[in-house]
Amino acid sequence: MAGELFKMMTGIDIVHVPYRGAVQALTDLLSGQVQAMFMVPGVVTEHIKTGKLRAVAVTTATRSDVLPDVPTVNSVVTGYEATTWFGIGAPKNTPSEIVDKLNKEINAAVADPKIKAQLTDLGGTSLTLSPGEFGKLIADNTEKWGKVIRAANIKPE
After folding, report:
1. What span, in angstroms and rounded, lies between the C-alpha atoms of 46 and 135?
2. pLDDT tens digits for 60-94?
């Protein structure tokens, strides 16, 4: 999807090579079977640090704490951002006091220095959002990636 967004925003035609998992994709990248790849940092950071791979750019809006010398795609392609995020949801009719309590405890855990350090080591950043902010993140991403899916004519297999 990050590659399709890049194609859509730049008009550059790159060939998508589908893989069922990161291991085979990384193997082919390291062996030169493919020339470039959009990968999550945790999978490739060690290979970048040891010089086996060269990072051209990160797809986040800001530079990575793990790879601070690597520029962002956004510095060349204005507005480009492709991030992977994880969140915790609850059924729609969950009482607001339970949602608020869960949100408070989850945000406290994510803000814990040990957990933040582990996330940083994996190339991640912790976000502490309110339920409303998280709902907006989901809605905004649904709209953004829906446009990419339609533009690339992506169909489920």
Report:
1. 34
2. 999 988 889 999 999 999 999 999 888 999 999 99
Phi, psi values for residue 72, rounded to 5°: -90, 155
Amino acid letter, residue 17: V
The Cα 118–Cα 122 span in angstroms is 6
Place of tokens 């994880």: 86
| Residue listed under structure tokens 């992506």 | 154
Mean pLDDT of 94-111: 95
Secondary structure (H, E, C), the chain:
CHHHHHHHHHCCCCCCCCCCCHHHHHHHHHHCCCCCCCCCHHHHHHHHHCCCCCCCCECCCCCCCCCCCCCEHHHCCCCCCCCCCCCCCCCCCCCHHHHHHHHHHHHHHHHCHHHHHHHHHCCCCCCCCCHHHHHHHHHHHHHHHHHHHHHHCCCCC
- pTM for the complete prediction? 0.84
| Alpha carbon distance 12, 80 (integer Å) | 14
**Neighbouring residues of 43: CB distance < 8 A, sequence distance ≥ 6:** 22, 26
In the Cβ-directed half-sphere of 94, how many Cα atoms lie within 13 Å?
12
